[in-house]
Amino acid sequence: MKKMNEKDIVNNQYKDTSNLDIRIMIHKKYSTNKMGFANWIYSNYKFDPEMKILELGCGTGDMWKENLNVLNGAKILLTDFSEAMVNTAKNNLKEQKDIEYNIVNIEEIPYLNNEFDSVIANMMLYHVPNIPKALSEVSRVLKCDGYFYCATYGENTILSNIAKLIEVDLKENDWIFTLQNGNDILKPYFKEVKRLDYVDSLEITEIDDLIDYIESLKGMHEIFKMDKSTLKEKLTSKMKNGILTIPKEYGMFVCKK
User: Exposed/middle/buried for 173, CB within 10 Å: 0-12, 13-18, 19+?
Assistant: First the structure.
C-alpha cells in the first residue's frame, strides 16, 4: 500500500468536519478554564470599522457565532483549503453582511499585495507543508503595520502528555510549528512578534471520549497506533478519583508587519 504524504494526510483529515468536531467537543466538555480557548483568542483581536480581514483555515466557522461582535464593523473573508469546511462555515453562520467565503490554500493566496488589514491562521500552520512559502504569502497580502494572528499549541500539551501516559515517545519532527519554535519561524516575516499564553488543562471523566479524540488523530501522529483496548486500559489505570488530568499548552502569536 502506498504511504500517504503529508498533504494527503491533511486532506484526508479534513475531507469532512467529523475529526475536527470530536476535537472541539473534548475541549468544550472537559476544559478547566471556562473562558474557552476560542473566546480568549477573539478577545485578543483588535479590529476597527472599515478593516478588511482574511482568515485562513477557518474550519467550521462555529467559533465565530458567539464572537461576531469583535468584528466591530470590519469585513471578513473566511477561507479554508477544504470545500467541506467552507460549506459548513456558511451553514453555521448563515447570511452575514460582513462575511464572505472562499476556498484558499495558504501557500497560494489569490489576493493582491497589501490587501488586508489583518490576517488570521489559527491552529493550522503545523499542517502546512511549506511554512516559509505560506508566511511569505501572508506577509505579501498584509498591509504595512497590519497584524497576523496565529494560535497554536506548545510542546507540553495534550499530545505529549498522552504520549507520556501511554509510555510512547514523540519524535522531534512532530513539532512543526509550536509556541516554542514559532517565534523563530515568524521573525523573518514580521517586524514584531509577541507570544500570548492561555492557561488550561483537561479533566477527563469518560475515557471513551479521550479514545475518540485519539482516534481522530490517527494517520497524523505515530504515537496513536496502539489498539483501542490497550490504550483504554493504560489511560484508565492513570485516573485518580475518577479523573484523568491532562495539561494543555496553548497560545497565540500576534505579529505586526
Answer: exposed
